[in-house]
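Quick illustration, no need to memorize.
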Amino acid sequence: MSENVLFDFVQAIALFFLNPLFIVAIFISVAIGYYRVKRERRSFKIRLLPGLTELKRLLTESWPYALVLSVLISGVGLVTDSGWLVLFSTIALIAVLSFNFKLTSPVYFAAIASLVLYGMQGFADGFSLWGWTPGDANLLGNLAVTIPLIAGMLLIAEGLLIRRHTVHYASPYLTHTNRGLRAVAYKVKRLWLLPIVFLVPGDMISAYVPYWPQFTVGSTAFSFVPVPLIIGFSQVTRALYPDVLFPKMGRMIIWTGFIVIVVGLCALWMPILGWAALLIGVLGRSFVSIRASIHERKGPFAVAPQSTGVVIAGVLPESPAEKMGILPGECIRAVNGRQVANEKELYDAIQINAAHCRLQVVDRNGEVRLMQQVLFHQDHHRLGLLVVK
């Protein structure tokens, strides 16, 4: 008996990892890193982060959120529909394969899956797959509450991930201003995988894995179904610094998620409000992206060359520059008492005192501060700075 349970558990885990969405997410994460490194080297001859960073962070940053969401969704008893869940995953797969990560917010998947399911009930009610039919989904019953609540929680998780885990992955690259000068823009393209356990009526898994955990309430059996859920994010910023824009976007998405949850709860008394909540989520999430994109396309470059010093485009992780607290957008005017105007003069000035580096830096607010750092032998020729050339 115990051997059968262990075998079924291993089989279910294998099915999870063989999910097409999981496999596609791995390959796309590698591709994101590859093209990011290629873009950075084209602009600065060096990459900011290793090419496999996106793959390594695919799950490590998101699993705590997945754990909390699984406990909330399954623990509270938010029962979803197996057909809706399959549609949700299919739409997510199509969106990820488009490589347009502005479309990979889970609230879009939830809304489109619900719309498709509604259309199937009207025009393909006789459709059947593995014993499931569109008529099994009660769109004006429990799903009118469950789906908006799940979508709202996913929006909150998305906002938290964007707020906390995008700034350090902002990839700088050189572009041209309207006057032909070279300035810096920043691009973030991230993909997160959240293994979430959903509560589904019927024997969606236990029909194939007999010893998979399930329970019965009255005459209805319920199964715990693990699903790899994808959240993607893509944004270019040039008028605002990444550490200003991305946390702001994250907060707006979080608040949108809370609003969706509140309106979704009202569907307990008026089911149509559940679908109004989904619409609010879609419009709110779209507004955040569109507003940011329009502002960034029209605004002036925040990081542009200056004649009075060397402007910082990026800082390599764990470098002397990072230890000194230098930020993108700041300008180095002098090194070891010598005025500098370009990268060559910057590193020539460092050699004046190869063991100790003193910098005069103008911060983003135009205030001058002095910084100093002891340099080791391997640091003598590079502080770890990407500069606007």
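The beta strands are 171-176, 182-201, 214-217, 220-237, 310-315, 331-335, 338-339, 356-362, 368-374, 385-387.
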